[in-house]
Specification:
It is globular and about 50 Å long. Strand 2 and strand 3 form a beta hairpin. The chain has 1 helix and 5 strands; from the N terminus they run H-E-E-E-E-E.
């Protein structure tokens, strides 16, 4: 497999993933971004432990979809993320709102 073949394969996978995201985004209530991944979820709990110099952030997601082009199944019933980095949680607009 040449470099061009690999780049084309990855570009095709990324396009498919973006299309899947558009198809499923309306099914979820929250968008969650961590240092390593992007998630859509219907339930999000964030807990911060300040026991050390760097706070440990725990994010628990339920009924989630993971932005990862190499996963066979991106729908995940439960996700637990532990990180020292920033976490961004956004509530998505309701499907009933017309923009």
């Amino acid at each position: 497999m040449s470099t061009d073949d690999l780049e084309n394969f990855e570009a095709e996978r990324e396009l498919h993933l973006a299309q899947e995201y558009q198809d499923v985004a309306g099914m979820f209530r929250y968008a969650v971004e961590t240092e390593r991944r992007f998630y859509l979820a219907n339930s999000v709990t964030v807990t911060v432990a300040n026991d050390s110099a760097r706070p440990l952030i725990e994010v628990v997601l339920t009924d989630a979809w993971v932005w990862d082009m190499y996963r066979k199944s991106r729908f995940v019933p439960n996700v637990r993320v532990l990180t020292f980095k920033d976490v961004n949680v956004e509530e998505l607009p309701s499907a009933d709102i017309e923009i």
